């Protein structure tokens, strides 16, 4: 637990990557209330409004003391009049009326329940709701009538398991099992567990494993080999998707530039090869005997640390890393500089699209002109 009496800088940057955001904050209840409104905007497809809430909430997460007056926050970056007035309501009444209304609404409850099913995004959920599908039970009936695809059918089959969060110890056992498989299919590989686990969360919704081989290029075809191996030995029970979403400028034999727009952007926010799978670790091996979602992401050695940074999150931290790189990294890269493109598939100088190689996580921050932020302070 964090000691809130230690001095902590006020969140004075509009970029999450320039703030320090611990997992637990002194304003949890207020932030949960605000997050309900943000979630509702996401579910309704009001993306701009949702992003604006995400930004404001993220700044307040980095606020180091209990908020007792709006004078503490009204001039913080990203905190506009809307959020300020909601915080004022909260301070006056210990609640935010709009949040309570949303939480009580049948539509919000339905869209929340429907989007908890893997592969069901807010657009799908709204379309289902319009057809009278308001809960998972009705979704099953809808699928039984021949609707939906293979991924949805699989997701519903193991939905109850996937709703249960994964404790840290099991996350680590799952990663160890994957490393053992890597050692068997291609000696010389290493991995990092990323996502919420790396940010210190006590439980995770899935396991995000980034891996590479110590020799650049050797990682080619590795996703298939790994998935085949783990499927044959029964550890992988379901495969939601295996993708190679495109050209990687760092990879030695890359000639398959893909112009196809990703169908599921949340899993394709980079060009790395990956498999979205479901695994099961039996109790005899220390697991819970539950189906667990695992993301297996393969990065070439030269972009491994970019991939680790890009998959460690939080989502807002990643958003602002990309924005910061694009908008603020100008002078250091010359008169014609247009910044750097950062994502988990690498760093690219935009002026001449030259890739920039890195050899450590600290170097990613250094190249972006940022002070290093340890993963546990990236809970923006
Ligand atoms: P997730 O596994 O979706 O999220 P998470 O690990 O933070 O939380 P959970 O316990 O629920 O699994 O994504 C892994 C990381 O990938 C996330 O921390 C940040 C990055 N990411 C983005 O940058 N953009 C996105 O849209 C998503 C979905 C993830
Ligand atoms: Mn979903
Ligand atoms: Mn995750
Ligand atoms: Mn994931």
Automatic annotation (TrEMBL):
Keywords: DNA damage, DNA repair, DNA replication, DNA synthesis, DNA-directed DNA polymerase, Lyase, Nucleotidyltransferase, Nucleus, Transferase. GO terms for cellular component: nucleus. One of its GO terms (molecular function) is DNA-directed DNA polymerase activity. Belongs to the DNA polymerase type-X family. It is an enzyme of class 2 (transferase). GO terms for biological process: double-strand break repair via nonhomologous end joining. It comes from the Eukaryota. It is found in: Nucleus. DNA polymerase that functions in several pathways of DNA repair. Involved in base excision repair (BER) responsible for repair of lesions that give rise to abasic (AP) sites in DNA. Also contributes to DNA double-strand break repair by non-homologous end joining and homologous recombination. Has both template-dependent and template-independent (terminal transferase) DNA polymerase activities. Has also a 5'-deoxyribose-5-phosphate lyase (dRP lyase) activity. The keyword DNA damage applies. It comes from Calocera cornea HHB12733. This is DNA polymerase. Its cofactor is Mn(2+). The chain holds residues 182 to 561 of 563 of the full protein. Its EC number is 2.7.7.7.
């Amino acid at each position: 637990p964090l000691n809130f009496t230690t001095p902590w800088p006020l969140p004075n940057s509009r970029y999450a990557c320039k703030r320090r955001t611990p997992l637990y904050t002194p304003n949890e209840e207020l932030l949960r209330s605000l997050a309900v409104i943000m979630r509702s905007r996401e579910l309704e497809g009001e993306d701009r409004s949702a992003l604006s809430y995400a930004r404001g909430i993220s700044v307040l997460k980095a606020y180091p003391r209990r908020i007792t007056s709006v004078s503490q926050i009204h001039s913080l970056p990203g905190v506009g009049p809307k959020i300020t007035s909601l915080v004022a309501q909260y301070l006056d009444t210990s609640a935010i009326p709009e949040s309570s209304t949303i939480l009580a609404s049948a539509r919000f409850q339905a869209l929340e329940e429907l989007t908890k099913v893997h592969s069901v995004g807010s657009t799908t959920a709204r379309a289902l709701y319009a057809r009278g599908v308001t809960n998972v039970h009705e979704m099953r009936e809808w699928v039984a009538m021949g609707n939906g695809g293979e991924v949805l059918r699989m997701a519903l089959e193991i939905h109850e398991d996937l709703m249960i969060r994964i404790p840290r110890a099991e996350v680590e056992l799952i990663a160890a099992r994957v490393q053992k498989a890597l050692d068997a299919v291609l000696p010389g590989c290493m991995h990092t567990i990323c996502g919420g686990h790396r940010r210190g969360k006590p439980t995770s919704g899935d396991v995000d494993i980034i891996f590479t081989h110590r020799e650049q290029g050797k990682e080619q075809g590795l996703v298939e080999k790994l998935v085949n191996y783990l499927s044959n030995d029964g550890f992988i029970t379901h495969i939601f998707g295996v993708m190679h979403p495109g050209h990687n400028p760092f990879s030695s034999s890359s000639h398959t530039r893909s112009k196809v727009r990703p169908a599921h952007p949340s899993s394709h926010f980079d060009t790395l090869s990956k498999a979205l799978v479901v695994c099961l670790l039996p109790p005899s091996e220390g697991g819970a005997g539950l189906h667990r979602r695992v993301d297996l992401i393969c990065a070439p050695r030269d972009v491994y640390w970019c991939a680790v940074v890009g998959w460690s999150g939080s989502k807002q931290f990643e958003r602002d890393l990309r924005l910061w790189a694009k908008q603020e990294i100008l002078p250091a890269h010359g008169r014609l500089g247009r910044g750097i493109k950062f994502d988990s598939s690498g760093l690219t100088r935009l002026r001449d699209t030259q890739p920039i190689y890195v050899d450590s996580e600290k170097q990613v921050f250094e190249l972006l002109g940022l002070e290093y932020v340890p993963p546990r302070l990236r809970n923006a």
